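Internal ticket - ligand job 365, 4'-deoxy-4'-aminopyridoxal-5'-phosphate:
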Amino acid sequence: MTRLRMRDLSAIPDYKPGKATGPGTPHDPPVYKLSSNENPYPPLPSVARALADQLSAINRYPETAAATLTSVVCERFGVHPANLVFGSGSVEVLSQLIRATAGEGDEVVFAWRSFEAYPMLVLAAGAKPVMVPLTPDHEHDFDAMLAAITDRTRLVIVCNPNNPTGTTVSQDRLDDFLARVPSDIVVLVDEAYVHFNRRTDTAVGIETMRTHDNVVVAHTFSKAYGLAGLRIGYALAPAPVATAMRKVAIPFGVTSLAQAAAVASLRAEDELTERVEALVAERDRIAAGLGRLGVEVAESGGNFLWLPLGDATAAAAGAFENHGLLVRPFDGDGIRITIGEPAANDRILAVCARLGADAELTAAR
Ligand code: PMP
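stdout (structure tokens):
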């Protein structure tokens, strides 16, 4: 067969989505999908109504300028439209920024382990991911990240709170880091989980962006707002960076349905905040319960918990699955478990109690 003239993409790993429960009859007892950091709540009625209202117009392309959403977001954060860029999920916003800053031969520095998509998106842009191990406390190692910056570095990503460890970066540490990063290198603060964080010392991306010409913040409607299936996220960026990002964006990448749902969500923020508070309370309840069982768990600012199980990861993931909990294992490293509905969360504790008794969760650490 003729070898087609294509790029060699063999270095790019496949994105592994969290395991899904799959189609078919409902399971009894139910199987819970705790593998993708989704929000377990169904759409608010006001959001569902906004979507229904849009349906009659889906024969038309979406409005590229997203005028209504732009004005709501700009008012909400006190930013200028020139600083706002939307994408098909914040993952597309990340992709825009990576492609706007880095190409063949360039480097992008970020901590590892972190969001699975970073290395893939960097490699897809032709650039080189420079992955700097987290500290033993699962935190960003800023000294090592600074040491990894070279003449080829075009972008640094700080994931705060970090997926999958849930650890946060304080304002002091971020400010200190930014003071030492060359000011012509763009720094992205990925705040996909910011709404779930309750630590008061954590860096605030938007405020940081306001005072630095090289800082970009990414937010998503997928997590706290529960719109993962609609794909919409945004960046707040210095105007020249935002202009560059728009140039590499997918044309019409943000659907009219996604825009309408995002507007309705921002108008229903009080109701959504109640849900977020409930998830935060559940996260803290489960973290405390795991602590009482002697299971090591990192303090999390996200809607998920990180169990650094090392070599016991695969066996523990199998045990969770056998008990109807689909979790996210990273082989040899740990398991990320999304906080779901209370019954699912109760089951996390029940499985861990059983595993703890079998010493599986404490083995091989
Ligand atoms: N950033 C981080 C840290 C994430 O964990 C995710 C989703 N898992 C995203 C960005 C992308 O989310 P979305 O594209 O749904 O906005």
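Auto-summary: The first helix runs from residue 45 to 55. The mean pLDDT is 95.
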